TrEMBL record:
Named cofactor requirement(s): Zn(2+); Co(2+)
Keyword match Amino-acid biosynthesis: yes
Protein name (record): Probable succinyl-diaminopimelate desuccinylase
Catalytic activity: N-succinyl-(2S,6S)-2,6-diaminopimelate + H2O = (2S,6S)-2,6-diaminopimelate + succinate
Residue intervals of the Peptidase M20 dimerisation domain: 171-279
Family from the record: Belongs to the peptidase M20A family.
UniProt entry keywords in alphabetical sequence: Amino-acid biosynthesis, Cobalt, Diaminopimelate biosynthesis, Hydrolase, Lysine biosynthesis, Metal-binding, Zinc
Main enzyme class: hydrolase
Protein species of origin: Enterococcus rivorum
Gene Ontology molecular-function annotations: metal ion binding; succinyl-diaminopimelate desuccinylase activity
EC number: 3.5.1.18
Pfam families (alphabetical): M20_dimer, Peptidase_M20
Length: 383
């Protein structure tokens, strides 16, 4: 495939505004592209206008290597902050600007093109190379959850996730928990507070208790690659009028967990605080967990990592760094599959540009990763 066509494919993907939806348009685009090269693919419908895409090449024998990329992007935010329209991909100084250029349509495009070029070059693959293009990664790994439950992950021996890593090998990342707590009180006139129950005051007690517990945990537990457990209250709503005692307050918080102190322990800690406060007079708190993604950690000396290092070392005579990140990925759902597998997160672009204004990917980086994916697939499946 010519360089210009590769860039056009990436630009076409960026131009489709898949802000937490409309991913079926990208699934259709890739499926149509694959059809030209006789690559079989299957759409897995999630909801209206949303569909995952699964495709395979290879001889069906031997190992199965997965390539994972998500099709959705986050909202571009204030358009005045962009130098170029976020869904009108623009090239300047060998950088391609647009929402999703880094996170992670360049990674997805690189995987798609790598598969096509392996077919074009009539490469022998003694195994299966499997693309998993997912919906809703940015709002809860929705597509990854669906594909896992439907068994599309169960035959994987290894997986590469194309999130932007600036050519580092990410083998571990934090988990993520979102929770909501509602404090119910009793309304009264502010001149007679004794007749009411102040839902805000009770929530403040709860917030202080949770913050204290999370601070204690962060001091006691850490991971050399991903750091400490972190906790933040990110949304708070309460009260309707300045001279009325509030009868309801709602908070939402986010916790980033680590392998050394996982989700189950954190959920138990929060639940215990809420249960203990509800035993006190006038406290009526309700806790729900809205989002629960596991921390993940793979073997940094796995056969997959060895193959990737070999491929990179042959060209550059150096190894890629092994790192951990705080953000979560589709792996948090995929690891719930019936069969354990090795994984690595490796893709074009810099993670620090994700979700930012004027997001971009360096074109040469994008092109280099295409070649890297091809060589990794050949080495891994044929070794």
């Amino acid at each position: 495939m010519e360089k210009a066509e590769k860039i056009t494919i990436l630009k076409d993907l960026i131009a489709i505004p898949t802000v937490n939806g409309q991913e079926e348009k990208i699934a259709d685009y890739i499926q149509k592209l694959f059809t030209k090269y006789n690559i079989s693919s299957e759409k897995v419908l999630f909801s209206e206008n949303r569909a995952n895409l699964v495709a395979e090449i290879g001889n069906g024998n031997g190992k199965v290597l997965g390539l994972s990329g998500h099709m959705d992007v986050v909202d571009p935010g204030n358009l005045e902050e962009w130098n170029y329209p976020p869904f009108d991909p623009t090239i300047e100084d060998d950088k391609l600007y647009g929402r999703g250029s880094t996170d992670m349509k360049s990674g997805l495009a690189a995987m798609v093109i790598a598969m096509i070029e392996l077919i074009e070059e009539k490469s022998t693959l003694n195994g299966t190379l499997k693309l998993l293009a997912s919906v809703g990664e940015e709002i809860g790994e929705l597509g990854a959850e669906q594909l896992t439950k439907k068994g599309y992950i169960d035959n994987l021996d290894a997986l590469i996730v194309g999130e932007p890593t600036n050519l580092a090998l990410v083998y571990t990342h934090k988990g993520s928990i979102d929770y909501t707590i509602t404090s119910h009180g009793k309304a009264a006139h502010s001149s007679m507070p004794e007749l009411g129950i102040n839902a805000i005051n009770n929530m403040v007690v709860c917030i202080n208790a949770i913050n204290s517990k999370m601070t204690e945990i962060s001091k006691l537990y850490s991971d050399p690659e991903t750091g400490q457990v972190t906790h933040n209250i990110t949304i708070i709503n309460g009260g309707v009028q300045v001279n009325s005692i509030p009868d309801k307050t709602v908070i939402q918080g986010n916790i980033r967990t680590i392998p050394a102190y996982g989700n189950e322990r954190v959920r138990k800690d929060i639940q215990t605080i809420v249960d203990q406060l509800n035993q006190q007079k006038n406290f009526k708190l309700k806790l729900t967990f809205d989002y629960d993604k596991l921390p993940v950690k793979s073997n940094k000396n796995s056969f997959l990592v060895q193959i990737i290092q070999k491929v990179h070392h042959e060209k550059y005579s150096e190894d890629l760094p092994l790192e951990g990140i705080a953000a979560t990925t589709d792996v948090a759902e995929y690891i719930k599959a019936d069969k354990p597998f090795d994984f690595i997160i490796l893709g074009p672009g810099e993670g620090t540009l994700a979700h930012q204004f004027n997001e971009y990917v360096e074109i040469q980086n994008f092109l280099d990763v295409i070649d890297m994916y091809k060589k990794i697939a050949q080495e891994y499946l044929n070794s």
